Amino acid sequence: MLWKGRRESGNVEDQRGGGGVKAGGISILGLVVAFVAWKFFGADPQQTYQATKQLTTQSQPQQANPESLTAEQKEDGAFVKTVLADTEDTWTPIFQQNNMQYKAPRLVMFTGAVRSGCGTAESAMGPFYCPADQKVYIDTNFFRDMRQQMGISGDANSSSKQAGDFAKAYVIAHEVGHHVQNLLGISSQVQQARQQSSKVQGNQLSVRQELQADCLAGVWANHTQERTNFLQQGDIEVAMDAAQKIGDDYLQRRATGQVVPDSFTHGTSAQRMQWFQTGFKSGDINQCDTFKSSI
Ligand SMILES: [Zn+2]
Fold first, then answer.
1. Separation of 213 CA from ligand 1 center, angstroms?
2. Which has the higher per-residue pLDDT, 78 or 206?
């Protein structure tokens, strides 16, 4: 994936390396780790909140001192800003074509733990979107975890210890997809519907919401490719590999040795791959109605 030299977004807050927010309680940490073990990726905000509201905070987040950042962290920052700009340049015209205005989300880079409008989050929970403050949160160390803990492959010809660039970009585009759902009112409709449904039905709604975010990430890839021709050989395969490794069935099987469909909240690997491809091939948000289709 080519990304250097393109516009960088000004909507990124860099809180890495500062004092940050410290989470308290070893047993709570254990709980979080257990939670993460099978729901590593893009935890839905409600669950994030549920798991984090018990954490206590000790200090306010601080703005990073650029001099304290490593070369890798600086590179990560430029990468995240570029991909966020790509999402802005994708969604602004799509919203315009539908007579709406795209209000871009802000993105917070942090290390360790962070205080968000959805509670205090641990970096081990993976990136997430908080609808309450309309911000995406990501600890850029997650890019290493994707490769070293989740086994998502890196770029050929790169000495980086991280997952491949397009897999990392896909993660950001998925979280921005949740922001698009929030702006379109889909998130609040899902939340309302969940309140009136059983746990099983509620989980199925969550799956549909997650698969839609994957489809919207595909739409982003389509439009960014049209605009910048950024894809390189093997990129789509890297994203498919990532989608496969972060599907709920894969994570559950790794964690428990068995698959419990009714507790899925992100969809199976096959579903995630399929919906990313639907968005990527069409570039059309109307193809991303995961609530109507049989998934
Ligand atoms: Zn998600």
1. 6
2. 78
Provide the whole-model pTM.
Answer: 0.82
> What are the start-end ranges of the H helices in 39-100?
45-52, 71-97
Range of the domain at 117: 12-288
CA of 68 to the centre of ligand 1 (A): 31
pLDDT of residue 29 exceeding 80, the answer is no
Looking at the structure of the chain, the number of domains it has is 1
Cβ within 8 Å of residue 184, ≥6 positions away: none
Instruction: State how far the Cα of 5 lies from the Cα of 3, in Å rounded to an integer.
Output: 7
Structural domain contains residue 3? no
Task: Give distance in angstroms: CA of 212 to centre of ligand 1.
Answer: 9
Compute, in angstroms, the gap from residue 167 CA to the centroid of ligand 1.
Answer: 14
Cα end-to-end distance, the chain, whole Å: 29
Inside any domain, residue 7:
no
- Which pLDDT does position 242 carry in this prediction? 85
Within 13 Å and on the Cβ side, how many CA atoms surround 48?
28
pLDDT in tens, 160-200: 999 999 999 999 999 999 999 999 999 999 989 989 999 88
Does 293 fall in a domain?
no
Whether residue 270 is contained in a domain is answered as yes
User: Ligand 1 mean position to 210 CA, how many Å?
Assistant: 5
